[in-house]
Amino acid sequence: MEDLSSFWGPVTSTHEWCELNYVHSSYIAEFFNTISNVPCILLALIGLVNCLKYRFEKRFSVLHLSNMILGIGSMIYHATLQRLQQQGDETPMVWEMLLYIYILYSPDWHYRSTMPTFLFLYGAAFAVAHSQVRFNLGFKVHYALLCLLCIPRMYKYYIHTQDRAAKRLAKLYVATLVTATICWLADRLFCKHISLWHFNPQGHALWHVLMGFNSYFANTFLMFCRAQQRGWNPKVEHFLGMFPYVDVKKPKAQ
């Protein structure tokens, strides 16, 4: 795809996706890749409200807020296709994974101050490096490695959870992650073929929608596990009969 002049000027991001630019609006470069972030933001808002309602630890509120920030950053990036906005999309992706690593591993970490300090410094160093160096493949490999670090701990939580509804959340997490990855790869690897079709399935937009649900399922599952650790008698309920959330019954002392 050629760089097109628009309200935002020529494209300066390191790569584009398999969607024609400025088809629906001169203000939005990739229309479907932009609006497909809305589910992520709304789901994160639902999770944040539930988190505040039952007074979960602040780390979970920050996690939901980071999901919202990530969705907004992705919308801005795909609407503009500018280098600066691309950094505003990719850097929070790494920060969010560092937050997941902290939430997953911190309950059993004996030196409590060392983990958040190290992760904060790591995230800051990455932000500085990413602002100076144009990562492409390196960013993808780095992000994939951070995701892989989370899997063993998620599996541990899964095998130690007996609640069927909670286990279903973990399975939905895996299913959406696998399906989203397939959509992302198809959009990247087969764009030349897809461009010849009469209908573009918008694989990257599907990635956004599925990863929005993926984050929501992961967050809800982790909240259930944490409530279980604290003896809050958690139960998975459903908002509007569709969206799972964690209902808790804290002991009176808490």
UniProtKB/TrEMBL annotation:
Q: Where does Ca(2+) bind?
A: 17, 19, 21, 30
Could you list this entry's UniProt keywords, alphabetically sorted.
Calcium, Hydrolase, Membrane, Metal-binding, Transmembrane, Transmembrane helix, Zinc
Any keyword Transmembrane?
yes
Q: Which residues form the signal peptide?
A: none
Q: Name one GO biological process term.
A: sphingolipid metabolic process
Q: Recorded GO terms, molecular function?
A: hydrolase activity
Primary location: membrane
**InterPro entries annotated for this entry?**
ACER, ACER_plant
Q: Which residues bind Zn(2+)?
A: 78, 204, 208
Q: Membrane topology type, per the record?
A: Multi-pass membrane protein
What are the names of the required cofactors?
Zn(2+)
Q: Where in the cell is it found?
A: Membrane
GO cellular component, as recorded: membrane
Residues spanning the membrane:
31-50, 62-81, 118-135, 170-190, 205-225
Q: To which protein family does this belong?
A: Belongs to the alkaline ceramidase family.
Q: Record's PANTHER family? A: ALKALINE CERAMIDASE (PTHR46852), ALKALINE PHYTOCERAMIDASE FAMILY PROTEIN, EXPRESSED (PTHR46852:SF1)
Q: Could you tell me what this protein is called? A: Alkaline ceramidase-like
